[in-house]
Fold:
Amino acid sequence: MEIRFSKIIPIPIPESNIANSEIWNRDLLFEQNNKYLIYADSGKGKTTFVNIIFGLRKDYTGNVYIDGEDISNFSINQFSQLRKTRLSIVPQGLQLFPELSVLENINIKNRIQNYKTSKQISEMIEKLGLSGFENRKTAKMSFGQKQRVAIIRALCQSFDYILLDEPFSHLDAKNTEIAWDLIKSEAEQQNASIIVTSLKQDFETNIIKLRV
Amino acid sequence: MIWKVLKNNIKPAQLIGTFFGITLGLSILMVAVSFYLDVKPIFEDKESFWRDEYIIVNKKVKITDSYHQIREADKEKPYFTEEEIEDLKRQAFVKDVAEFSNCSFAISASADRDSPLSGFYTDLFFEAVPDNYVDVNYKNWNWTENSAYIPVILPKVYLNLYNFGFAQSQNLPQISESGASLAKFNIHVYGQKKHQKFEARIVGFSERINTILAPKSFVDWGNKNFGEHEKSKPGRIIIIAKDPSSQELVEYIDNHDYDINKSELSNSKALAFLKIIIGIVVTIGIIIICLTFALIILSIQLLLQRNNENIVKLNMLGYSLKEISLPYKIMVSILFAASFISSLIPLYFLRNYYFSNLVLFGYESTTQLFSNIILPSLIFIFIVVLLLISMLKSTIKKIISKN
Structure:
């Protein structure tokens, strides 16, 4: 899958932020099997960038093309289809269901494609140090724990791109590494691209860096 | 599992409230429809219940203080002219008009010596109306020339007058309708210097026509063969009113100074009141139904707005509009199905209740409960559910698009 940005300017972003940006008002091409780091200080539009690709924001000028098709013409169902099988996301707000348990939050995603077996899910839960929390409602968990649940959930589907919006902001170094490795290995398996946003640019060497 | 997320914010009390709301709305709707369908024939097909209203009209007999005036004025006046009858026929409220045929020959009745009525003798008159105006169900109501037997119909009030007035005061036995019809008597017809004897029997008692009726063929034959004077003009006519409750009829009768038996219009007044009451009930029913539906629509909108966040989250995970709306569709369908089944109970009892009252009037329904009420109601509910579902889908679509 190919994502192309053509002179995108989000309406709410001030002009001063656009001139120095490597994203806004540029022509960009995101290709499969790559890793992209989108970095910037707070308030520059990292989340806006992720949300534009994911179809959650439409308040911009310019065009975004997915496989040559302008996404502003996509219907709700076309986006649903993309999100089911080709685009995965860990949103900054995580968007977990607080009334559901850890396992239920993961399964509500996994059941769409039955992508992972319950054994594979258990392994991921274990790797990310959430064993024993499976049946705990996410409302009663810390933000760091919730981030890990959201990461596992995002891996329970096929994807060409995985969009990670500051996914490790509340994780310690060890957990960040485990999670990042898990994401990378899953993306490699699927020949998928990773687009990750961060406040910092010293993320990893083998990654295409773009400043917002 | 989606249901677990989407059912969030649905309170059982709210669901039960909605269920009772829909049940009440549907019950009123179905009872109203069923009542309307059951009662409609009363208005449209008069034969089934109220039947055509037969009204006997005569001109008012004036009391005047001079013999001369009586002779001159009343000679013509109490009779209907052809123009007057034609004018009546042209009125919108009149379905048909018939004249009373009078006899222009003398008649007397007597009993044989061996009869229980031995010694009975009276002068008599006959009148006749067209056979279809006669309200006594007697299949041999006719007379053919050369027949020596004449069937006779008396007014019901005569029998009542005898049974409850005369018989009681004189300590005589009361006579039933069937008992009276057993008695045979002789009829003597005189005129044109001829005399002929017939045998007669009372074949029934009329509630509608207050006169002594003989078959029209007999009266016509008698007038021709025994008539002493030219055919008299009709003093009374009988009309079949299309809508006896119509105000125009009453006004026409008053304006032309005609006379009718006002109690004959009592049914008509009842009918007019019934029309008003049904109108009010149906209006109230429609208002309640509209309010119920408005309430359902509002409840659904409110529920969706409360679940706004979860709907957006589900869509983010890749759930399509169809998948998100499915649990709500099922909920609405189950709610309506359960309400529909429940509303059959009040329908059954209320219908039985009003039927037990209608039956008192001798009314039998031609309405089929399933094909005329339940099936159309089902189709109606199906359409309502479809509308609600499409509204539901468009609201969910709006919620998703907005975020």
User: Anything to note?
Assistant: The CA atoms of residues 97 and 239 of chain B lie 4 Å apart. Confidence is low (pLDDT under 50) at residues 45-50 of chain B.
